[in-house]
Specification:
The protein is mainly α and 123 residues long. It has eight helices and four strands. It has a two-stranded parallel sheet. Helix 6 packs across helix 7. The chain is globular.
Length: 123
């Protein structure tokens, strides 16, 4: 969501051709839930935010995974994730053996899933 709110290093990385990313389908639901907030913060209308999200997802090569593809990892992910809202991201990371890209320091409290910050990506 940070990439939608402002033009930043995060958005620049997302829009680069060097990354192929994965995300749970929950990402789309979560973004829709916060559409009003995103619209206010970006000073764009809701439809403009939707178009920006679609552009970012397409350009960034974000592959969306339905929850059924990693549901067997949910119990383990719930135990690992410091925030229950991040459980789906942890479950997908467990299923695909992929790191999680986040600037949330609390996520690094566990050691099973690698967490990569934007700064680390840039370095």
């Amino acid at each position: 969501m940070a990439a939608l709110i402002k033009d930043s290093d995060t958005r620049e990385l997302l829009m680069s051709d060097e990354l192929t990313l994965i995300a749970p389908e929950f990402l789309l639901e979560e973004t829709a839930k916060y559409l009003d907030l995103l619209s206010r913060k970006t000073k764009l209308g809701k439809e403009a935010v939707r178009r920006l999200l679609a552009e970012v997802l397409q350009k960034a090569e974000v592959n969306i995974y339905p929850a059924k593809e990693f549901e067997e990892k949910m119990e383990e992910a719930f135990k690992l994730s410091p925030d229950p809202k991040d459980t789906m991201y942890f479950a997908l990371a467990l299923k695909t053996n992929a790191p999680i890209w986040s600037n949330d320091k609390a996520l690094k409290e566990q050691t099973k899933i690698k967490i990569i910050t934007t700064k680390e990506f840039l370095e």
